[in-house]
Amino acid sequence: MEMLSEMKAMVRKSQQMPLYLQAISLIRGNLEAIRDGQRVEPVAIGVLTDTQLEAINRHRLSHNAALPPIVAEVIFLGSHIYQSRIVRDGYSIDDVIDQIASAMDTTAELVGNLPMQTIENPMPRADRYGNQVHDRAVFECMSRHPRPELFSVVPKGDRVRPLKQKGRP
To answer: Structural domain tally of the chain?
Structure first.
């Protein structure tokens, strides 16, 4: 009985804090491994809030009634994020971690007019380059179903981007 109470408390706590305590080190580990040319495995990094999960499942059903619902736990690989944010846009791993932490905030809301399941933090975040950005988390919900994969993160409003340094991916 005591263990059940502890498990319920952990679930409640995880619903209040979308990223798990070890999420930052797991995200960093995958991104560094990708940088070093290593293969990575999916890692659980957190959960969607009840409100976020309900909004995403409702949105999915409204576009295709045959789509099965997803669960709250979010997994992360990082390959696409590494290629798009770090290699293409020149962001650092620390920048990407900041983007993910902000996009996965409890206040993030569904952006319903996009083809992929996306949540965006409505609160602007000051980035390292002088921008006020609204970070978006984009989820791929089928390949690792029932858990959504954090497929991409997008800092909306990043008019000033980091300069790509020679020799740095």
So the answer is: 1
